[in-house]
Amino acid sequence: MYKIIQITDPHLSRPGQNLWSLNPFERLETAFKDISTFHSDAEACIISGDLTDSASPEALRWLKDSLAGFPIPTHLMIGNHDVRSVFFDVFQTYPKDENGFLQYAFELAGDRFLCLDTKKDEPVSAGQYCGKRMSWLENELSKTHQDVYLFMHHPPFEVGVPYMDRIKLDEAEAFGRLVSNYKNVRHIFFGHVHRPVFLSWQGITCSACPGINHQIPLVAEAVSTKCSVEPPMYAVIEIGHGNIRVNQDAFLDRYPTAR
Ligand SMILES: [Fe+2]
């Protein structure tokens, strides 16, 4: 089995500024340290979008500097809070598809990983997977018989949280029809929902982990604000011989018990 890590939705604000009274920079730095300490054997780390809260180039530069000291090869994705052009201004040599979308493939131990770009080019929270991006995915899926693992910011399905279900991927049905043609798609990792979620969709297992900064309450009425403070987590994913195991670790809320 080999190991990879998922981090999602750090929502880096402008350096020096808190977001919802939490410090996303400190939290992400703590996650990086925790992963470096306990999971230095991970082959890769994927940060599945909403790198920033308001597309701050300073925040992306901070991330770039921070990643220089993080020993695990890290793959970045964008979400609805990011702006693609700002991302490419800071990460100028990052891979992109032939239409300029931030989507790319990489391989580990004979398995293929596809990181998709679901950013909608309007200032909205929902996701988009247009015909051009769909063609790229179809081409990628049609040229391999390897096991494929998808990473995408917006889920193409509902997770049972009405606020999030209104802003899922716009083209959920078309996306589902495309993916259903490829039985080698083994798992979908997503972000966006700021919650620990596990489900099966079209026979494919799917999972999301909480964000690094704030969360979205499962029951809206459970808190008086739209967002909530709940333990942030990263996912430790182990894959081997077609099997997958996903654990989530609440790195900021882990203490020894009283004796
Ligand atoms: Fe987010």
Any descriptors?
259 residues, alpha/beta, Purple Acid Phosphatase, chain A, domain 2, six-stranded mixed beta sheet, five-stranded mixed beta sheet, binds fe (ii) ion
Can you give a write-up of this model?
The termini are far apart. The protein is globular, with a radius of gyration of 17 Å. With 259 residues, it is an alpha/beta fold. It has one domain: Purple Acid Phosphatase, chain A, domain 2, CATH 3.60.21. α2 crosses α3 (84-90). The strands form 2 sheets. Strands 4-5-6-7-9-8 form a 6-stranded mixed beta sheet, with helices on one face. A 5-stranded mixed beta sheet has the order 3-2-1-10-11, with no helix packed on it. It has helices at 24-38, 57-68, 84-90, 131-142, 162-165, 172-179, and strands at 2-7, 44-48, 74-77, 104-108, 111-115, 148-152, 185-190, 197-201, 204-208, 234-240, 243-249. The mean pLDDT is 97. α4 (131-142) links the parallel β5 and β6. Bound molecules: fe (ii) ion (FE2). Fe (ii) ion (FE2) binds at residues 9, 11, 50, 79, 81, 192, 194, 211. The site of fe (ii) ion has 8 residues, from loops.
